[in-house]
Amino acid sequence: MKSEVILKQPEVSHKVLRVSPELPSKLIELGATKFYRCFNCGNCTAICPLTEGKVSYPRKLIRYSLLGLEDRILSSAEPWLCYYCGECSDYCPRDAEPGSFMMALRRYLTTKYDWTGLSRLLYFSKKVEVIAIMILAAIVGLLIYFLHGPIVLDRVELETFAPIHIVDTAGLAVFFILATLLITNIYRMYRYVMRDDQGRRIKIPLKFLITDFIKTVPLHFFTQMKFRLCKVWNWINHLIIVYGYAAAFILFVPLLRFTQTNEPFLLVNPLSILGILSTIALIYGASVAIHGRVKKSQPMWRYSHSTDWMFILLLLVTVVTGILVGIFRLIGLPLATYITYSIHLMIVAPFLILEVPFAKWSHLAYRPFAIYFAGLKERFLASRGVMYV
Amino acid sequence: MEKPKMALYWCASCGGCEEAVVDLAEKILDVINLVDIVFWPVAVDFKIDDVEKLPDGSIVASLINGGVRLSEHEHVVKLLRRKSKIVVAYGACSSWGGIPGLANLYDKEEILKYVYGDAPSVDNPGGVRPREKHVEEVELELPSFLPRLLPLDVVIDVDYYIPGCPPTPEVTWKALEILLSGNLPPKGSVLGASDRALCYECPLNNTKPDKILLKDIKRPHQVIVDPEKCLLTQELICLGPVTRGGCGALCIKAAMPCTGCFGSLDEVIDYGGKAVSYFASILDYYTEEDVERILDRLPDPMGVFYRYTLPASRLRGKIKTTMR
Amino acid sequence: MSKPVLVIGGGIAGIQAALDLADQGIQVYLVEKSPSIGGRMAQLDKTFPTLDCASCILTPKMVSVARHNNIKLLTYSEVIEVSGRAGDFNVKILKKPRYVEEENCIGCGECVAKCPSRVPDEFNLKMSNRKAIYFPFPQAVPLKATIDKEHCLFFTKGVCRVCERFCPTKAINFEQQPKTIELNVAAIIIATGYDLIDPSLAPLYGYGKYQNVYTSLEFERLVSSTGPTNGEIIRRSDGKHPKSIAFIQCVCSRDVKINPNCSAFCCMASVKEAILAKEHLGDVDCTIFYMDLRAFGKGYQEFYKRAMEEFNIKFIKAKPAKIEEKPETKNLLITYEEQVTGVKRVLEVDMVVLAVGVKPVYPEAISLEKNEDGWVKLRNPYLDPVSTSIEGVYIIGVAAGAKDIPDSVTQAGAAAVKASILAWGGG
Amino acid sequence: MEQPRIGVYICHCGVNIAGTVNVREVVEYAKNLPNVVEAKDYVFMCSAPGQEIIREDIKKCQLNRVVVAACSPTMHEHTFRTVLAEAGLNPYLLEMANIREHCSWVHTDKVAATEKAKKLVEIAVAKASTLEPLEEIEFKVNENLLIVGGGVAGMTAALDSARRGFRVYLVEKKPILGGNTARLGRLAGTDMRGVDVAGSMIEYVKRNGMITTLTNTELVSVDGSVGNFKVTLLKKPTYVNEKCTKCGECVKVCPVEVPNEYEFGLTKRKAIYLPSPASYASTYVIDGENCTKCGECVKICPVNAINLEEESERIEIYVGAVIAACGYDPYEPSVGEYGYGLSNKVITLFQLNRLLDPEGPTNGELKIDGFVPRSIAFIMCVGSLNTTPNSYPYCSRMCCSSTLKDILLLKEKYPNIDVYVIYKDMRTYGRDEQLYLTACEKFVKFARFREAPKVSVTGESLEVTFFEETLGEEISIPVDLVVLAVGMKPPKDVEKIRTILKVGCGPEGFLKEAHLKLRPVEAVTDGVYLAGAVTGPKNVVESITSGSAAASKAVGLLCREKVRIEPTIASIREELCSGCGICVSVCPYGAIIIQIKENTRSAKVEPALCKGCGVCAASCPSGAAQQLKYKDIQLKAQILAATYKR
Questions:
Q1: Which of D436, D443, D478 sits opposite A36 (nearest CB)?
Q2: CB under 8 Å to D253, separation ≥6 — which residues?
Q3: Is A388 touching D (CB cutoff 8 A)?
Q4: Does A34 touch chain C (CB under 8 A)?
Q5: Which domain holds residue B20?
Q6: How far apart are CA D563 and CA D228, in angstroms?
Q7: Which listed residue, of A92, A324, B296, D447, carries a Cα 20 to 30 Å from D372's Cα?
Q8: In which domain, by residue range, is A282 found?
Q9: C305 vs C275: CA distance, rounded Å
Q10: Rounded to a whole number, what is the distance in Å from the CA of D223 to chain C's nearest CA?
């Protein structure tokens, strides 16, 4: 293969990696509770349905982490390629839980990609997490308190209570802030990943950046097809949640002006049907996750970090309050509708603001981008191989 | 009474054995007094015809030195066998082939090619080789070069052996005494020498340590020998332990290791084999490299261990090598 | 006068303990539950690191046991009850009926030749058949035939009795009854050895599912000249010589879910087996998958080095994750991660040998105190390394912890002298 | 020699032989061989009726030689020899032809196998014709036992033998018993320390009336042979007698200061010193090598316990068996090897043991220059597995487990120390695997080296750099302390011990067992047994076990009244011997000596020491040394028969 990527000649002297002792304990806090039991057999990597060729995890990542080789961890896109089927954990002869380690590693990387530092605070402190949610909820509550429209009590007039231009503007504002944060984080991820094993930056020509992006990101974003190789049922469940969420998001953010009206809530409305379907999908997804986490029925649910619970809880409350809003509207209870609606917003806002750029939800972007970056990087490394062999 | 008749003859020999007889010095007169020498080409002018005229078995003893290398030797020793009661192989060459016997490592053609052509001192542009027939005035049949040198007992029946290269006068005299005493030992015996190995009479035998283990071997020109200390322990290949005694350890007294000219003892089947076996047993080595190093010190193992006995050995003509 | 000592288990450890005691002038009862002494070592082909033939060094010891005036050999017998205390144990031994009078049987083998009933041969790990009347192996001690009641046509169907007709010394006795022997002994030495852990506990290796996956003990029989194929290494699936063999270490060992311990001898046994495969077949690729090659005994590291350098055996540091069979060739695909590069690879081989870990076998009649991992608890491993928590009861060989032959033999000597002290009333 | 009258007995061995060999044909063939007067076959020659046939024939046919063609002589030579003896014939007039293992078992072609069996019988008959009667040699056994080495292996052997009722001389070259184990600190899998194990053994040894302990005593020579050894010992003075109250005044005035070998050089001691901090060290001792005899200590000693005039004493004892339990020496890295000797922050595992021992130089505090290190790297296989040019090729067996044990101890005391183990293969065999798991759980970080790591010492900082195998990357670990997990090497004086005891020695220098697998505690020399790490690296438990095992073997010998030796040994014909000494040089058992009579030398075989290996016979340049029953003429007869075509 002809080298496609132009490179600078690397220096002859190589960088010797220096071991640092801090990293492992951080990972333990993030949920890698047993990875230090690893004795290097490689069973996990070999059994993983997704590893192939140079894409090698979890063993190597465990070793990097144990020895505190942080540069190596940061430059790895691999943690995002794992969908936590748990085969590695099931067959680990040392019970080192490589799967939960990978999960912890994703949490760790999320904190590293985030430049605000908020992510780190959220992940490392339950207190901060709770306070952050409460503050955000309070802000939303105050905003509603000061900005809400007239409260019509003889019938349900949601649009009047929450004037669409305000909610919409606020929603869009939040959306853009989140998008900005997420994009900057992805850029940081790119900077971290695109380093060779000597720590040098890898420069990828724009052409490849664009073509590869088009080829990989949308596809993986919408299909998560790698997940299919991991565990089919988990993939389907996940898709249900994703699409449920996406539908809900579309319905209640960009299409809010059609969904949040003063018109009586009609079940036959196609948007309503979509809303109900998405709600069912979310309820289903959340309950599968809760059930799984309580029962610890799959390796991926065996070790739940506090942020995992928070995520599910917020999701559940969001969905439940959303449903309640619908029901109250349907049966015509104006006050109940407005209150639950307010609560709903107070939950949704922190949920989106905290989870999307700073916590668990960010994976929706990191995963497809990781595939994209890993592909680019592999191409780069392969081309370098051609250059020097 | 007529004195007993005696014959002496040399085959492929350096002449040292003839010299050894003369070395009996004044004792040679005793010999002359006791026997009537009827054939001794080197010293007395008798012809083959004279021997042929003698009745069969009329010679009491023939002392033959040198190995059988030419057809002439074969002819004469067979004649002497017929005419003699006792045939004695005199000296190492006739007993086992001796140093000329090392020629058996090469085939006849190769020897001739070298001696008459390739040897650095030879100037033979015509490439003349010895002929086996000479036709000029009369047709003469000349002695031919046999394919191999043979010890005497391969060609004829031998009664006794007197070892040495050459046998020392003492050994020769003792052997003659036995022969003349009429009190003859069993056929095949070695006359005049000892029944034990040389170490037994070696003055340095008592200087040996408990265990002799050699880390290295040396050749005599590579060391300054301590004449008061067993030569073997000085890492010289001394074949005294494997060689019949009786010489009086002459070489050792001159600070040279025994080269084995008295041959093996009665119990030993193959001198060189035994010599290698004994010597290898005391080499102290652990690794392949050690073995290589030691072997490098031995440029000519055949010449060391089979110097006098190759034609009589189990190897006989089985080992061939090429001229260096 | 000394009291007798009981040794349970006639493997190499039990044999050595019995011989040591007997040499010290002590009456020994050596109880073995199978028809012959010899134990696991008798099933081995050669031994590491000297490559001594196992039966060549073991058989003379077995013969010495049979010949020793101080040893009473009780084969095909089991200890069923133990009571009393150190210096004064009362032991009940059940001598199972062989249906052959030991005094009369001269081991001629006529009966075996004529017996019509074929039974899977346990000695060859069921890879071949034996008869219902049988000798476990040719060098068995005692060389007395045994009728396997479960498979004998007379016992199962009431017909046959062919052996009885052909026996030249009228040694067959279908009426033989179990006998209980009661003994009073000063000390008991347990040398009951081991079993392999069930390899199906590691299901991804496909033992039992794929024909060409063997346990190491099966492979030992396969290379052994007295084995099912007379020492020819051939595949179960097609009877062909394998061109490549992979040996996988730590199967059911060093796995916290199955057995957290290391089985101590598998590494070297596999190195030896790979060498034997090379010696038998010449052009065969041998690969050993291992995590830590535990060549810790005397001469072991040198043996390991020899395997690499002289025999060109490949060593791969990895625990393979799974083995799959190629249906058309019945070859096996081993998936593993190469440690240095982290690359996941698949190796195709013709045969796989699993170095399966071991679990101890303990006599039921004695309730031994155990550790959490199921292995016996020692009284004081330092001051009394071969004593169980019951005074006067010693434990040696693999039953006391996975170990190789020299260590088992050493423990046998140690237990012998301790028992001997008790037998002479000291202590 | 009388005319041989040979009976040939051919066994069917059931179908084992008869299935492949036509036994009748062999019988007929045998009948026509020279000197054969009778030839018979039987289904099982070894059975009682088979034996009876031979007994009867010996009497009836006046046989004076017997050939049995059956199985391997290792199986039944003994049986048939007994038959001959019972019939009044010398048992060594038996020759066996192995037509089972050498013929029927290894062939399938019946015709060829029968021909081979005939030839094997013919060869045996030819040899039988040359056999001579031989007499077994018997010795009375001395009931005492000598044990060389007072470590745990030696003490265990001593205690077991003494408890079994035999007098034991326990010889230790150091001034105190206990060996290396006493210095090991806490042992794996127990709360006991090495010094507790050694100490309790020392107490038992002291209390046992059957054990005579000789400390500060060296082995000078051992003569004689199995059952009857004469041992010469040299007891060196300690210059201090038992009046010593351990007041320590003498130490204060002693001007000589040398490295303290008990603490592996971590501290210094005086020329008068306490050989161990343990309570069983009951007196001070003076190290004769370093003492300048200045007399200061004598002057200050309040109880007059010191006598600088004390002399060495030669002791002669007689024993029936010897156990060599001289232990091992820890491998001492050379200066610069892994930075050892370049910084006091590079120490060996043995030194770490001392630092962790409550009775050690720091009272159990791990402090280097007054600070507890924050991070430690343990480098494995130092001195083992050929990792460095100086190191040995073997694996030292105990270092992996021992290191992990130390680390767990360390982690107990200092849970926050960051510990790295840099290893090649983690050889925690057997149940020790659990130590490895526990270490992982305690967050010990393992890294695997391919080639020996480099330790760079720059000022105060240490850095261990190596190619990490599991990652395929070169990494470096900055640490405050490097511990070298050194292996075991043969004890310094092993060569001397080996020469005195005439036992073999492997290329690595450890003493050699008679058989690596089945005779691990016996030396090739009869009556000499080996215990503990002197045969190769062992951990404490294994050493103790082998101590008991060696005692078992020694007791087995000592409780016999007499030892009998098969007479199939070497013999030297004095009339042919030149005293060249080659046989002495090659004899692996030291069984041949040179005797000087009237100024001439000749060799003589000591029958009790000779094992009949035949090396002397093969190397004797004069043919004077012969192996009885395998003399040259006997072998020649066999060769002639083998090559003779009928």
A1: D443
A2: D296, D297, D299, D300
A3: no
A4: no
A5: 5-99+147-181
A6: 10
A7: D447
A8: 118-370
A9: 12
A10: 25
